[in-house]
Amino acid sequence: MKLTHVDEKGVKMVEVGHKKDMYRRAIAKGRIKLKPETIKLIREGKIEKGNVLAAAQIAGILAVKKTFDIIPLCHPIPLTGVDITFDFGEDYIEVTCEVRAIYKTGVEMEALTGVSVALLTIWDMVKAVEKDEKGQYPYTKIEEIRVVEKIKEERS
Fold first, then answer.
1. What residues bind substrate, as annotated?
2. Does the structure show a pLDDT above 90 at 156?
3. pTM listed for this prediction
4. Which range has highest mean pLDDT (6-15, 69-78, 87-96)?
5. Does the annotation list 62 as a binding residue?
6. What confidence tens digit (pLDDT) does each residue in 13-48 have?
7. Class of domain 21-153
8. So which residues are the catalytic ones?
9. CA 148 to each of CA 84, 119, 125: distance values in angstroms, whole numbers, following the listed order
10. Does residue 9 have a pLDDT over 80?
11. Is there a binding annotation on residue 53?
C-alpha cells in the first residue's frame, strides 16, 4: 500500500488540483453522557454559564471552519454549509454535524472536528453541575464519535 502523505522527501499535503470539483457532504455524530439532572437543566435553560446548545453550535461551526488550521494535512475547503443539531436522551445529548461543500476533497474531517468541539463545549458549559463532591466527573463521558455518512457526487 502506497502512503499518500509521506514519500522519500518527508510529509506532504496531497495534491488535489487535478481533481474535479464535486458536491461533498459528510455527517458525523457523537454523544456526551450527562447526569439526568443536567439534561433537565439544559432543556430548561437553567445552566448558569449560559445557553449550552447555542454555544455548542457556534463553537462547532467555528471548528469546522478552522479544521485545516488544527489538522496539519487537511486542505482549506470552501464550505457551502454547516448544521449542528441535537437529540436528547434521558442521560445523553447526541450531536450531529453536517458539512457541505463543492470541492475536490471530502469534508469528513470537518464534520468530525465540528461534532468533537460541540461536545467539548457542552462539557465546558455544564462542568459546574457535572462535578461530584471531589471535583471529578464520574458520569460525564464523550463517546461514539463517528462519520455516519459521506457523499460525493457530480452536480450539473
1. 73-75, 109-110
2. no
3. 0.92
4. 87-96
5. no
6. 777 888 999 999 999 999 999 999 999 999 999 999
7. alpha beta
8. 124
9. 14, 16, 26
10. no
11. no
